């Protein structure tokens, strides 16, 4: 199991522009057979700070996601409106 | 619904010390009646970077969590081993 947190920082005046792009990205990604979870959230203190919480069975599934037509098309359109570089954390479950 | 990401940064030589404290915190917190999800992860690139992904019904439930005996006892014990200040993001679900 691979858990991912991916954070984007969008210019506040572009939030309305990116909302439909994020919506489309979420819809398509959830249809990927290997996608376990792909949930998007917004920072309560910053409407331009978008946070994905993702779950994939393994790294290969995440890498395949990043090569899909919807990812390749939509992410560059979103990134045009970044105000700073996004971040990604790949995580393992805590050893219970 | 309130989603939370809380990140801790622990000195690498203290990771073994904090693991049982985190384990106890997770166990107790999951027993709080209002807790929807309280999952802990570790950054694949940094074994001292711990990430909670939490879900609460509302802010009052999160605030109550932070006043529980287990939180009040365990979090200061963990924080003794911080190498930098932790971060917390309170998030709303993306408007689908």
TrEMBL record, chains A, B:
Pfam families: ABM
Stated name of the protein: Antibiotic biosynthesis monooxygenase
PANTHER family: ABM DOMAIN-CONTAINING PROTEIN, QUINOL MONOOXYGENASE YGIN-RELATED
GO cellular component: cytosol
MF-aspect GO terms: monooxygenase activity
Keywords for the protein's UniProt record, in alphabetical order: Monooxygenase, Oxidoreductase
Species annotation: Croceibacterium xixiisoli
PROSITE patterns in the cross-refs: ABM
Domain ABM: 2-91
């Amino acid at each position: 199991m691979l858990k991912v947190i991916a954070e984007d920082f969008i210019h506040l005046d572009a939030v309305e522009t990116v909302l439909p792009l994020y919506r489309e990205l979420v819809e398509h990604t959830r249809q990927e057979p290997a996608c376990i979870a792909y949930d998007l959230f917004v920072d309560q203190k910053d409407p331009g700070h978008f946070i994905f919480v993702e779950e994939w069975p393994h790294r290969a599934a995440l890498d395949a996601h990043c090569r899909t037509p919807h990812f390749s098309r939509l992410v560059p359109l979103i990134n045009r409106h970044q105000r700073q570089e996004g971040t990604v954390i790949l995580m393992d479950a805590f050893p219970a």
